[in-house]
Each structure stands twice: as structure tokens, then as C-alpha cells.
């Protein structure tokens, strides 16, 4: 015959067994760890590989300052696809040798260039402006809409070794897309490294009509950069 205290004890028994409670706790802990890991991986994949204003080592120490500012070489001579492709393109060994088959032949700095010519293996240049894979970016549309090289790349004509001046973060891109007419210049000034003089309101309106720029709502839509 059960006593009163026994009946009370049985009525207060926990609804779940200890193993079941432990199992639920482990599941919740696993979810927290999974979410934390996902967030960390997402931040890692979205972070540009190169630090802003830090020179990026290359297999050959190429100086934009020497080639652009001193020698006056046009951007399109090396970056041949800048106006008609999603990527600007990197100079091939043959492009470099169009000058260096005659100039500085014995320079130790160009040893890898001549090795590339002998072996047929391309030089593996390191990307300075490297966007995450989930960002859809077309170089040619920006150039043909009047976005100057200096707008994103800075004064490369003053860089003995190239570095990144822009954060490349989403908010940096959106600041331009929210007010696109104020970030363009005439096509004949797109490749110029000289700082742009401020445009008048009428000049901005004219360029806006000429380039047929999309409005801010369209340019800041998620599908514009993420497809």
C-alpha cells in the first residue's frame, strides 16, 4: 500500500528522463556551434585576402609607377580586356616581352619572365582586387559607363608595388551605386590618373542621360551584384 509521501514523489517525477535531457542539450549545443562556425566562415569568405594599403608581393616586382607615370604606358596595353570583358585581364608573358626582349635582359628581377618564355608556363600574378565568388562584377560595364580607374584602384601611377586602396566591402560599393551620376566622368577621362575636377550639376545631368544610368533603386537591388 503506497503512502502519501510516495504518491507525491511519483507525481513530481520529471517529464523527461536524464538521458533525454542530455540528448536535447547536446543538440542545442551542436546548433550553437554550427551557427557560430557558419558565421565565422561567412565572414572569412567575405573578407578580401589583401589588407588595404598593404603592398601585395608579386612573382615579379612590377612597378605601376615606373610603367605608367615614368614611361606613360596606357592601361590597355597590359590590361587588354578592360573595355570589353568582365575582367580587365592580366598581361601575358608575350606582352611583357614586347618590351623586355630588348630592355633589361640581364636583370635578375626578370628571371621568372624569361623562364616563363622558355617553359611556356604563365606567370601567376596575385590578384590585388579580389572579390568573393558570390559577387557578380563586370569590369567593362563600369568603364563604359564612365567610372574611372582611379575611382576603384586609386593612384596606381604612384604605386611602386600595387596595393588596394578601397575596402571592396558591400557598403563601399553601395555608396557609389546610391549616387552613380556623381561618380562618373567623360569617357576620354576614364583612364586618366589625374584627380577629377568637380562636375557641375548640368554636366552630371548630361552624363546621366548619355550613359543611361539606372536609378538608385535598380543599382542597389540585391540581384544587381548577387545572381
Structure characterization notes:
By secondary structure, the protein is an all-alpha fold. Helix content is 45%, strand content 0%. It is built from 12 helices and no strands. The longest helix is centred in the first third of the chain and has 29 residues, at 18-46.
Q: Averaging pLDDT over every residue, what do you get?
A: 86
What order do the helices and strands follow? Answer: HHHHHHHHHHHH
- Radius of gyration, whole Å: 29 Å
What does the main sheet amount to?
A: none
Going by helix content, strand content and strand pairing, the class is: mainly alpha
* Large-scale geometry: flat
Question: What fraction of the residues are assigned to beta strands by DSSP?
Answer: under 5%
> Could you give the distance between the termini?
73 Å
Give the oligomer, counting copies of the same chain as homo and different chains as hetero: single chain
Weakly predicted, low-confidence segments:
none
Number of helices: 12
Tally of strands: 0
Helix content: 40-55%
Amino acid at each position: 500500500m503506497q503512502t502519501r509521501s510516495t504518491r507525491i514523489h511519483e507525481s513530481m517525477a520529471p517529464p523527461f528522463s536524464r538521458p533525454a535531457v542530455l540528448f536535447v542539450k547536446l543538440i542545442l549545443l551542436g546548433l550553437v556551434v554550427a551557427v557560430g562556425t557558419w558565421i565565422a566562415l561567412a565572414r572569412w569568405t567575405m573578407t578580401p585576402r589583401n589588407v588595404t594599403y598593404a603592398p601585395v608581393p608579386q612573382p615579379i616586382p612590377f612597378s605601376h609607377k615606373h610603367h605608367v607615370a615614368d614611361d606613360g604606358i596606357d592601361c590597355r596595353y597590359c590590361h587588354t580586356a578592360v573595355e570589353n570583358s568582365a575582367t580587365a585581364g592580366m598581361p601575358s608573358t608575350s606582352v611583357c616581352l614586347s618590351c623586355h626582349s630588348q630592355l633589361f635582359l640581364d636583370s635578375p628581377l626578370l628571371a621568372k619572365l624569361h623562364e616563363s618564355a622558355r617553359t611556356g608556363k604563365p606567370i601567376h600574378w596575385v590578384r590585388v582586387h579580389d572579390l568573393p565568388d558570390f559577387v557578380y562584377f563586370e569590369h567593362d560595364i563600369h568603364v563604359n559607363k564612365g567610372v574611372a580607374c582611379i575611382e576603384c584602384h586609386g593612384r596606381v601611377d604612384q604605386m611602386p608595388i600595387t596595393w588596394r586602396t578601397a575596402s571592396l566591402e558591400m557598403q563601399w560599393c553601395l555608396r557609389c551605386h546610391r549616387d552613380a551620376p556623381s561618380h562618373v566622368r567623360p569617357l576620354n577621362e576614364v583612364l586618366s590618373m589625374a584627380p577629377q575636377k568637380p562636375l557641375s550639376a548640368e554636366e552630371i545631368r548630361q552624363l546621366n542621360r548619355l550613359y543611361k544610368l539606372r536609378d538608385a533603386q535598380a543599382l542597389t537591388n540585391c540581384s544587381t551584384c548577387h545572381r
